[in-house]
Write a structure and sequence with these properties.
The chain has 246 residues and is of the alpha/beta class. The chain is 41% helix and 23% strand. A 5-stranded mixed sheet has the order 5-1-6-15-7, sandwiched between helices.
């Protein structure tokens, strides 16, 4: 009788474990700061769109996930991940050594760089050319860090990059440092500012973007990396670059 009970218990344990394995994750909640055209932004229907959104949707499709997006201000976005409010962040996040100490990143899915945007009338080609000036950037971004380290210029930090470009247009600041996709949008595509700005510098950095997950969240990290690999193998990332960034 004891032997029969032991066999039954073992059978049930195996059955439960198999069931747990079958109940694989099918959904993730992802935060993004949708104020960074053309990577993540709100459209006229108040939906979150952009290169990052299309890219993650393609990644998720490859591994059988659905994604719920939460529009989250940049200055609160990492706090929310720490608190477990969502599973990941996709928001043009540059992979840095400092960030790697606290968070896990997927493999890079895009390579960008910081660049200086100046008024069309400006002759500046470097930050040094704007010595004594105020330069704008979004708070907590790589662009803000670059301005802080540059001698002779003052950082004016903004909650979102749109406000920085509004101040640049009105003359309250003399330049903006931001990622190349955002720069391309405001210089070449945004009808509100057509002809007002120019790309002033060559790229100041080369920066890989990654999707961020909580340290040790191997389940989500592995799924995302598998999806990124598949998307790149099929050339979907290049198709999306052509759609959004060319």
């Amino acid at each position: 009788m004891k032997t029969a009970r032991i066999v039954l218990i073992c059978f049930l344990a195996v059955f439960c474990l198999t069931g747990m394995a079958a109940a694989a994750r099918t959904k993730i909640v992802v935060a993004t700061d949708a104020t960074w055209p053309l990577m993540e932004m709100m459209d006229k229907n108040n939906a979150i769109v952009g290169f990052d959104i299309d890219l993650l949707n393609a990644v998720a499709k490859e591994v059988g996930l659905t994604v719920e997006y939460r529009n989250t201000p940049w200055d609160k976005i990492f706090e929310g991940l720490d608190a477990g409010k969502y599973d990941a962040i996709i928001s043009s996040v540059t992979i840095t050594d400092d960030r790697r100490k606290k968070y896990d990143f997927t493999d890079p899915y895009f390579s960008a760089g910081q660049i200086l945007v100046a008024p069309q009338s400006s002759k500046a080609r470097t930050l040094a050319d704007l010595k004594g000036s105020k330069i704008g950037a979004q708070s907590g971004t790589t662009g803000a860090m670059i301005i802080t380290r540059a001698p002779g210029v003052e950082l004016k930090a903004y909650d979102d990059i749109q406000a920085a470009f509004a101040d640049l247009a009105s003359g309250r600041i003399q330049g903006v440092v931001c990622d190349t996709p955002a720069a391309a949008n405001y210089v070449f595509q945004n009808p509100q500012y057509k002809g007002k700005f120019r790309i002033a510098s060559s790229p100041l950095t080369q920066e890989p973007y990654g999707i961020v997950v909580k340290k040790g969240n191997k389940e989500v990290l592995d799924l995302l990396n598998k999806g990124i690999k598949a998307v790149k193998a099929k050339g979907i990332d290049k198709q999306l670059e052509k759609k959004w960034l060319k």
